[in-house]
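From the methods appendix. Each design record in this collection lists the tokenized structure first, followed by the designed amino acid sequence. Records were kept in a plain field format so they could be parsed without special tools. The example shown here is representative of the layout used throughout.

RECORD:
FOLD TOKENS (192 positions):
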């Protein structure tokens, strides 16, 4: 299985490491240009700064090809800024986005960089043991359409959701030693 990892900014190497920890037959490819999307079985969009990421995706000719992948049902997993890029609606912003998931999001919803934090999340879909989530200038999901399954909340805020083969997390699972979220992406993306 070959999973592309968008490598324009963010912790893309950490995502690659986590994906490779999910199985011997797992391969990754850094994606910076449209041609590198060819032949991939899925795509991870890491964190970073979503406005910059959108501009870079346009500059490198990636926005439309990635949108087409999602429209064709290729599994895509977005974390933090990647979640924002997947959203149909971003509160107070018209920035470039993929608009693939029926969600509305709030950027930097937990505060500035210095207010970043870690906390345990209950995510029944990945097991009983809490997942230690890392939130860095994190967004959250304001609302979801009926096609979206909420997988985890932090208090009342939605921080993890799935819509078919699309998965979005407000936190950074790649910055932990726990591969369960990445494994869940692979299992759900390729088992339906």
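DESIGN:
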């Amino acid at each position: 299985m070959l999973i592309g990892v968008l490598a324009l900014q963010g912790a893309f190497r950490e995502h690659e490491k986590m994906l490779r920890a999910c199985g011997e037959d797992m391969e990754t490819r850094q994606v910076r240009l449209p041609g590198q999307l060819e032949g991939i079985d899925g795509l991870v969009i890491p964190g970073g700064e979503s406005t910059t990421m959108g501009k870079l995706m346009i500059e490198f000719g990636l926005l439309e090809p990635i949108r087409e992948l999602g429209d064709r049902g290729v599994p895509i997993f977005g974390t933090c800024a990647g979640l924002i890029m997947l959203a149909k609606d971003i509160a107070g912003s018209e920035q470039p986005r993929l608009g693939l998931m029926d969600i509305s999001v709030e950027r930097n919803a937990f505060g500035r960089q210095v207010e970043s934090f870690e906390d345990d999340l209950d995510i029944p879909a990945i097991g009983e043991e809490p997942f230690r989530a890392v939130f860095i200038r994190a967004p959250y999901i304001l609302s979801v359409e009926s096609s979206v399954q909420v997988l985890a909340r932090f208090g009342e805020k939605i921080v993890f959701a799935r819509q078919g083969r699309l998965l979005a997390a407000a936190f950074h699972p790649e910055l932990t030693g726990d591969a369960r979220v990445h494994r869940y992406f692979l299992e759900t993306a390729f088992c339906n």
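APPENDIX NOTE: The helical segments are 12-20, 50-59, 63-71, 81-86, 180-190.
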